[in-house]
Design a protein that fits this description.
The protein has 284 residues and is α+β, with helices and mostly antiparallel strands. It has helices at residues 223-270, 274-283; strands at 2-5, 10-15, 18-23, 28-30, 34-36, 45-51, 60-66, 69-71, 82-84, 96-98, 107-115, 118-129, 136-140, 149-154, 163-168, 179-182, 187-190, 199-207, 210-218. The protein has a 6-stranded mixed β-sheet, with no helix packed on it. The protein has a 4-stranded antiparallel β-sheet with strand order 13-14-17-16, with no helix packed on it. The chain is elongated and about 100 Å long.
Length: 284
């Protein structure tokens, strides 16, 4: 809906009561394009105000253009985060940018353009929401030929609703059939899996203000291969255990021999020499 009439000397060309939905940390442009009638006079004023809820604090001025000057120090929560988009708002562009958005920036903002005898206003509704966090992709169960394989995708953070979509990023790009996708739960069921269903899959988590994705590499194998792989792993573990035992016994036996030789040497050193006894007897 457009507001303003040329008879009032000001015409605002932007849409009134426009809804903007933006992500936390992003930016928003609040539009306020206007046209001045030829018969206007006086100073141009562009005033942006954040409207309060009825019965709460008064409306807050956030930025003003008046008599060729810009005043942007009125509203502390938006200090250094609000700017006119145009270097010269007199050109007919009174739009502003809000930077580094936070959830507390959500609210209703009013643009008022005044140049005697005209004065017009429009409002913009801003909602700042959390975009989805990076989701996790994982597989539950064993991916075997003939089985039902379930891929899971979940974003821990983000404004609801969050929709999940799966796609295949390697050839053939078409999703397996038959399959079942739950866009709310983020699950993708591959029914009666085949080896040709192997490949790289991407899940995209999306809400009204952003999206993130994750990757999962899927390998569909025959049940016999699963058993063979398990048996091979078990065999390797047994061989490692045997080798470890042999090495342990070898060093154990070596340590026992060293201890025995050391004990014999100690006993021999402790025995008195026989020739000393003979010398003592002959002297007597």
């Amino acid at each position: 809906m457009l507001t303003g009439e040329f008879s009032s000397a000001v015409w605002i060309n932007s849409t009134d009561k426009k809804l903007l939905e933006k992500a936390v940390g992003g930016s928003a442009t609040l539009d306020c394009q206007f046209t001045l009638a030829p018969d206007d006079f006086g100073n141009l004023e562009i005033e942006w105000t954040r409207l309060s809820k009825p019965g709460l604090t008064p409306d807050s001025e956030i930025i003003v253009y008046s008599a060729g000057q810009i005043y942007d120090h009125y509203y502390e929560p938006l200090k250094d985060r609000v700017h006119f988009t145009s270097m010269d708002p007199r050109s007919g562009d009174g739009s502003i940018n809000l930077l580094l958005l936070t959830p507390s920036d959500s609210g209703t903002y009013r643009c008022q353009v005044k140049k005697v005898p005209g004065i017009k206003r429009i409002t913009t509704i801003l909602r700042v929401m959390q975009a989805p966090s990076k989701p996790s992709c994982h597989l539950k169960g064993t991916a075997e030929v003939g089985g039902n394989v379930v891929l899971h995708c979940n974003a821990v953070e983000g404004a609801i609703p969050i929709d999940y979509n799966w796609q295949r990023t390697t050839e053939p790009y078409a999703l397996p059939s038959p399959a079942r996708l739950d866009v709310t739960a983020g699950t993708f069921h591959i029914l009666g899996a085949k080896e040709t269903d192997s490949g790289t899959y991407q899940c995209t988590a999306r809400n009204r203000v952003g999206m993130e994705n994750c990757i999962l590499d899927l390998k569909i194998v025959h049940p016999s291969m699963v058993g063979m792989i398990s048996g091979t792993v078990a065999g390797i573990l047994v061989v490692l255990a045997v080798i470890t035992f042999i090495v342990y016994r070898r060093y154990k036996c070596k340590d026992d021999l060293v201890e025995e030789d050391t004990a014999n040497d100690i006993r021999e050193d402790a025995s008195p020499p026989k020739h000393r006894k003979l010398v003592t007897e002959s002297t007597v």
